[in-house]
Amino acid sequence: MALEFISPEGLRLDGRRPAEIRQLRANLGVIDKADGSATFEMGNTKVIAAVYGPHEVQNRSQQLLDQALVKCEYSMANFSTGDRRRKQKGDRRSVEISLVIRQSMEAAIMTHLLPRTQIDIFVHVLQADGGTRSACINAASLALADAGIPMRDIVASCASGYLNNTPLLDLNYLEDSGGGPDVTIALLPKLDKITLLQMDAKLPLEMFEKVFELGNKGCVAIANYMRNVLLENTKDLAFARGVVKV
Amino acid sequence: MTEHEHAASVGEDVELEAFRRLYPLEFLEKFLKDGVRPDGRPLGRARSTLISVGSLPHAEGSAMVKLGNTTMLAGVKLEVMTPSVDFPDEGRIVVDFQMPAICSPHVRPGRQSELEPVVSEQIRNALSSSMMVDLRELNIAPGKAAWMAYLDVYCLDSDGSLLDAALLATAAALADLKLPEVAVTDDGKVLPASSDVQEHRSLKNIQSKRLKLGKIPMALTCAVHPKYILPDPTAEEEAILKTTITVLTDFSGQLFSLYKPGGEVLASTSTVQDCFALAKYRGKELQKIFNNAVIDAEADDAMVED
Questions:
Q1: A85, closest residue in chain B (CA to CA)
Q2: What mean pLDDT do residues B38-55 have?
């Protein structure tokens, strides 16, 4: 065995228990010029998201008459990973993640209320330590909420995996590259519907159910956290406007 | 607030916003006449400036700079390279300024902003003309190995005076840069310091160190109106006035370069001198902020080592 991912005491490499998520931190309204923006941190993974729109469609030929056009771009800072990597923009991985983020957001945005408009979602990874996909979806979801775009529900995402015969929640980079399966889930928590489910590597079906269940619970926990952040932010805004008095 | 009053204040807000959009120059001039800027600062002042270093654990040196709303994040990654034949004892610093689509509504994904290469080039020129870093500091083994420092500066929020903020982030990240401890073999192979010494008998250890910094360059962008000079303009002011003069100096006010990329207002000698005086004042202000940020970081280092 190359690496023990779980110590005999049942602790993971970074000291967490198997079903524990990393510390979450989120901030709203971090970019002044954007219509909505947010940073989202899961442990050492840190991403920043900005939403511009709804505005008129830039490329008229792409305009949709009955719904909003959602665009998404994912990029990574050159210093976000251990080894410096170049030419991130437009490579296959970023294109794929952009697509995944866009589609999971489209499931939540009430696009039919905003016909002939365009919504731009930009996410930028400042630090990568596993789970960037989930962090990006969470950040994008908060930024959309901050922009006041009508949504059915917030989208919360979390990854889970299976290593050393144990289901693990919210994998970090070391665990992610440990060769086991990596299941990313994005959930609409109020509707209790899954908008994204991705898995690579082999996993027996009965194990998959356990891992999936764990990931689902992670999403619910993250959704609760996001809801609190949004509530806090709304309170602050209401107070600043003088609508609420203490 | 009663409902009626509330509605009235909303109406005024809308009117003000409309005036601001339709007559931007008149809007700005109304403020300037009273000696203030739209964001509330006095005419000749820069926005509040915040520098924090060492915020990125993956990078060998990093800094975040906030200039009002303008936010820059700079990180340095090191790689080992073979030095050129002409300069066998020198490393290299490669600066890249980037504006990801998040930073402004005017940046379109996929299309490179015109500003990116311009600011990159200006930072590069500032580093070389100020000689802030002696490239021989990046030497590992003469003729065999040297450090290549990739410095990426990302604009996270673009609200005017980008070069000022980017250059400050560059300088702070380089001040924060710590060359790691390495071991070098006779034939110039560089290994992490923890490598097994038994295997390579001819191993030479090189201690971890910070760079010795020379004169630190800074920039002050001034937006020029026929009657007024506005240092450190916001994006709105830059867009209205269209003419800027950028002065590059070090903290003590020694001039490195001047940059006035065209514009509607022609600069007289006295305008340039005024800009220069503003830069000198700004230099003193920045020196304090810069030293505090960097010294704080070094003190933290010392505490960790103890």
A1: B77
A2: 92
**Number of domains within chain A:** 1
Residue B65 near residue B51 (C-beta atoms within 8 A)? yes
The percent helix, strand, coil of chain A (3-state, each to 5) is 30, 30, 40
Structural domain includes residue A15 = no
CB contact under 8 A, B104 and A80: no
In a domain, B143, yes or no: yes
- pLDDT at residue B110 in the model: 64
Look up residue B213 and give its DSSP letter. B
Residue B56 contacts A where some CB pair is shorter than 8 Å: yes
The pLDDT score that the predictor gives to residue B61 is: 93
Q: Say if the Cβ atoms of A33 and B157 lie within 8 Å.
A: yes
SS3 content of chain B, % helix, strand, coil (to 5): 35, 30, 35
Q: Which residues of B touch A33 (CB under 8 A)?
A: 69, 103-105, 157-159, 235
Secondary structure, 3-state, A123-173: EEEEECCCCHHHHHHHHHHHHHHHCCCCECCCCEEEEEEEECCEEEECCCH
Write out pLDDT tens, residues A173-217.
999 888 888 999 999 999 999 999 998 878 888 889 999 999 999
For residue B73, give the amino acid letter.
Answer: L
**Model pLDDT for residues A90-131, shown as the tens digit of each residue:** 688 889 999 999 999 999 999 999 999 999 999 999 999 999
Name every chain A residue with its beta carbon within 8 A of the beta carbon of B157: 30-33
The residue range of the domain holding B282 is: 44-305
Interface mutation target, options B58, B78, B174, chain A, most CBs of A under 10 Å: B58
We report the CATH number of the domain holding residue A215 as: 3.30.230.70
Q: Does A80 touch chain B (CB under 8 A)?
A: yes
pTM here? Answer: 0.84
Structural domain for A127, as ranges: 24-79+92-238
Indicate the DSSP class of residue A21: P
Minimal-distance CA residue of chain B relative to A140 = B102
ipTM of model: 0.76
If one counts the domains in chain B, the total is 1
Spell out which residues of chain A touch residue B109, defining contact as CB-CB under 8 Å.
71, 73, 120, 122
